[in-house]
Amino acid sequence: MAEPKADIALIGLAVMGQNLILNMNDHGFVVCAYNRTTEKVDQFLANEAKGTKVIGAKSLQEMVGKLKSPRRVMMLVKAGQAVDDFIKQLVPLLEKGDIIIDGGNSEYQDTKRRVEELDKQGLYFVGSGVSGGEEGARYGPSLMPGGNPKAWPHIKDIFQLISAKANGEPCCDWVGEEGAGHFVKMVHNGIEYGDMQLIGEAYHLMRDTLKLSHEEMSKVLDDWNKGELDSFLIEITRDILKYQDKDGSYLVEQIRDSAGQKGTGKWTAIAALEYGMPVTLIGESVFARCLSSLKEERVQASKVLKGPATSEYKGDKKEFIEHIRKALYASKIISYAQGFMLMREAASVYKWNLNYGGIALMWRGGCIIRSIFLGNIKAAFDKNPKLSNLLLDKFFSDAIHNCQDSWRTVVAAGATLGVPTPAFSTALAFYDGYRSERLPANLIQAQRDYFGAHTYELLSQPGKFVHTNWTGHGGNVSASTYLA
Length: 484
Ligand code: 2AM
Hints:
Blueprint: E1 8-11, H1 15-26, E2 31-34, H2 39-46, E3 55-56, H3 60-65, E4 72-75, H4 81-90, E5 99-102, H5 108-119, E6 124-131, H6 133-139, E7 142-147, H7 152-162, E8 165-166, E9 169-170, H8 180-208, H9 214-224, H10 232-241, H11 264-275, H12 280-292, H13 295-302, H14 317-350, H15 356-364, H16 373-383, H17 394-417, H18 422-434, H19 441-452, E10 456-458, E11 461-466
Parallel strand pairs: 1-2, 1-4, 2-3, 4-5, 5-6
Antiparallel strand pairs: 6-7, 8-9, 10-11
Helix pairs in contact: 1-6, 8-11, 8-12, 8-14, 9-10, 11-12, 12-18, 14-17, 14-18, 15-16
């Protein structure tokens, strides 16, 4: 048999897989391509991979035989059963110390299970977030690998070479153990939902309260893209807003206002509920998409349910545009702070050693949420790696203080004019809650104790739970003594 010559194998020849292979090839690696439907291997070699060093295999056995040791096998296949099926077929073909990488959109709990199961057999499993779409995969994605740390020294070079770069640094580093890579990717996607919703609300306000034209809105976003909000999503929105159809009409207004979703935003919200973290902005963004998709119900309701007499903002337009920009910026800070709170909590539950500055750098380039802003987050964690909350970093608290009057003006105007701003509003409510020394939860505790004898703590005696017989005719027994 010929000497094995491939540095890595890649299973799954959909666009993402093909582009990652070509990216690896550009960086000098020999890749062996495989796909369940093996005709795709031939097609790929004869077309997209023509003239490259990419080789192909028609069976997993042949593929493994072509790999240098320790063997590195990366999968980019549909999340779920397909990943487990391939693992099952690969295990008997591999040897101790070989590595399997899943670059699909797998759930982090599945990745955790796979890391544990394969470790028992001496195989190192990695679950890596891959972000940046087709273009990213081809020319530099954001990569978020996590799983068995023993794999990292063997894949570090390939991963960091093919990843996007931000100021010369790779947007890829080891995230952490178990499902940490896929967890961080999931939070990334949740944050993406939030960023998109925030931009959507800014557009809604500019269109419906300021009555700006599409050219004007596009120009506003172009201006925003030169400052603190400089980001991929602002940039593409600028171009979307001014995109005209062949007949000269603006395409965006012809698109049905019912947002789709594939689930990663929802997973983030579910994780937030599971770990008890108030990741309200992502949650609200998921619900905003749900509400948007009730299009027919909304059309019916719009004929019945009345709002204020006018939705037109009567004040200074230029000033209000600046208020909106600041509301967006402050809300975005809250969203990222919440996302990092969720990662911190999951890290504490699973005992992952997450590198928060590294995560900000991984998202700094290559992915959908890439922005200047992530450079500021990286800087905050560089300054203080133990930073407990992003909002407590001086750069961000100063930024919020500078934006908050505008932010309050926008939320109030939205409420008065009847234009919904769910993400701006929930971010502000979170901010005011988070900075409150006292919240009305004392009353909730009293109510719980009143009707259910659930007990409460006194401010003067934290940790000691007591019950009061509020009515004089209830018992003195607290719920904890008779409720399991
Ligand atoms: P296919 O070309 O044979 O359909 C994205 O869909 C990638 O995942 C494709 O490479 C596809 O292979 C692969 N894929 C999807 N479901 C699969 C399954 N159940 N088993 C193996 N590969 C699968």
